[in-house]
Amino acid sequence: MHEEPILQVRNLRKQFGTGCKQCSDIDNRNLEKNFCKQCGTVYACQDISFDLYPGEILGIVGESGSGKSTMMQCLYFDADVSSGEAYISEPILAGKNVFELSSQQKRSIRNHVYGMVYQNPVQGLKMNFSSVGNIAEKLIAAGNRNVSEMEATSKRLLESVHIPIHRMKEEPRNFSGGMQQRVQIAKALSNNPPILFLDEVTTGLDLSVQANVLDLIKNIQRDLGISMIVVSHDLAVIRMLADRTIVLLNGEIIEQGLTDQVLEDPQHEYTQQLVYSLL
Amino acid sequence: MTMLEITDFGKRFTIHHLGKTMPATEHINFSLEAGEFIGIVGKSGSGKSTILKSIYRSYLPDTGKILYDSARFGLVDLATISEREMLYLRKYEIGYVSQFLNVMPRTTCRQLVINALLEMGETEEVALIEAEKALAHFEMNPKLWDSYPNTFSGGEKLRLNIAMATVKKPRLLLLDEPTASLDQQSKVRVREMIEKLKNKGTTLVGIFHDIEFMEGLCDKVFDMQTRELTLAKETVTHES
After folding, report:
1. What are the ABC transporter domain coordinates in residue numbering (chain B) (predicted)?
2. What is the pLDDT of residues B13-25, one digit of tens each?
3. What is the pLDDT of residues A162-203, one digit of tens each?
4. What CATH number has the domain bearing residue B215?
5. If you count residue pairs, one on A and one on B, with CB atoms under 8 Å apart, how many are there?
6. Residue A107 reports pLDDT greater than 90
7. In angstroms, what separates the C-alpha of A181 from chain B's closest C-alpha?
8. CA distances from B173 to B3, B5, B96, B176, B212 (A)
9. Which residues of B are less than 8 Å from A1 in CB distance?
10. Domains held by chain B: number
């Protein structure tokens, strides 16, 4: 089966700190977990490579500090990579390492190709804008100028994430955590992105709201065929959503496979511990 | 046409916290023609499920080959096929059924079967009709169609699983102990369900700890203890 990945990531590295003699050798860094005791440099992502295919949900699991969020921030250009490449299969971006593009081009990718849902809605929403205004902001960034059209799109999206019509003009700061998360998802979807990043989106939500959000994500995948990267420390969430899963530890990929295979027949010592800890 | 051929299959589990590698099963050989039903029998712990889960790639096979004749890809080795190809086969060609349900929370029985069809690209209308047909066909009580399956009995969960797997019209269906812990009456219904599937031409691999119950239905029986494949009809004549 020949299939073109929609996003290819190769050798992504991100370090905080300049490094020293002890930790600068790529093959033998002498780290304590991902931390150099000599100079205090943190190697948050070390040589991460993977492919994301059209319409699939790729799960990324790992404990706190394993580099999941840093990786997402790098992919979404919230943080610069230390080194590495990423390719998006869009005609105008063919063969271009998107990490090396100008900030203007990166912004254009964020506006047209990417959607992002952060763990904390404060990062993804303007809390003092109305919900409709939040979505309109993203639509304007994507080049939309027709006000009545934008309002109609906003309403349709907010309805699809079950925000009651009479509250659409309200500011998200008045909303509960689960509602804010759903407004954030609506906003991320507004430019019809082919690629959606979801960073710990159900963390901190109660089970009933979590079920709503999971259901929403699954429907989006099925109806719109959007490719997604779902980062979570919660194996149960990954099991429900992801087709394939990558396990991160200390900034490195230690295992990857079909989600049920990773959970039922984990190969790496750390993954085994993780799975044995599952309730 | 040979649908599935397993040669010198083996699987070990490395348990890191014990520092041990344990063999689950080894030197397994059998093959299956299209439209046949093979029963794998053996004691608990003999590695029956390991074989089945390795065919479905829930376990990562270590040694040997699992050759499957795919409609989409031709002859492939399920032990080494890419993850994306395996996902395709799971979606369109190979089904897996057990008594354990692992489904989206707060989704009704009916919706789960509909989702199985939507995932394959069916339209909503067709999915709705086909889902109801499947639930009726496998004698799921209509009162249960719109409830959440959390409180279903083992037999009901099994029937829902069979409905979810068979609406996709898989070419190969794997049955993981479908009769375990069921009472006699439910077992008879499972047997009837398998008979219906077989009559429709589905190729089946099932594991059972009591094969007597499947007598007359299996074309071949693979015994985990003797590692031998026997034609089921022969065993029947021996006994009679």
Report:
1. 4-239
2. 999 999 999 999 9
3. 899 899 999 999 999 889 999 999 999 998 899 999 999 888
4. 3.40.50.300
5. 61
6. yes
7. 19
8. 11, 15, 6, 10, 21
9. 72-73, 82, 84-85, 88
10. 1
Helix or strand or coil: residue A167? helix
Choose the closest CB to B58 out of A222, A261, A272. A261
Task: Note whether B58 contacts A243, CB cutoff 8 Å.
Answer: no
Under an 8 A CB cutoff, do A214 and B105 touch? yes
Residue A17 per-residue DSSP state: S
For chain A, what is the mean pLDDT? Answer: 93
- Which runs of consecutive H residues, i.e. helices, occur in chain B? 48-55, 83-92, 109-118, 124-137, 154-166, 184-199, 232-239
Mutation target among A216, A245, A261 for the B interface, most CBs of B within 10 A: A261
Q: Does domain A1-105+236-279 have CATH number 3.40.50.300?
A: yes
Q: Residue B92 belongs to what domain range?
A: 2-239
A28 close to A36: Cβ distance less than 8 angstroms: no
Q: Which residues of B touch A273 (CB under 8 A)?
A: 16-17
Contacts of A244 in chain B (CB under 8 A): 83-84, 87
Where b means 16+ CB within 10 Å and e means fewer, B88-124 reads bbbbbbbbbbbbebebeeebebbbbbbbbbbeeebee
- The ipTM, to two decimals, is 0.90
Q: How far apart are CA A60 and CA A82, in angstroms?
A: 21
Residue B240 predicted with pLDDT over 50? no
What is the structure's pLDDT at B233? 63
Q: What is the spatial distance between Cα B105 and Cα B101, in angstroms, rounded to a whole number?
A: 11
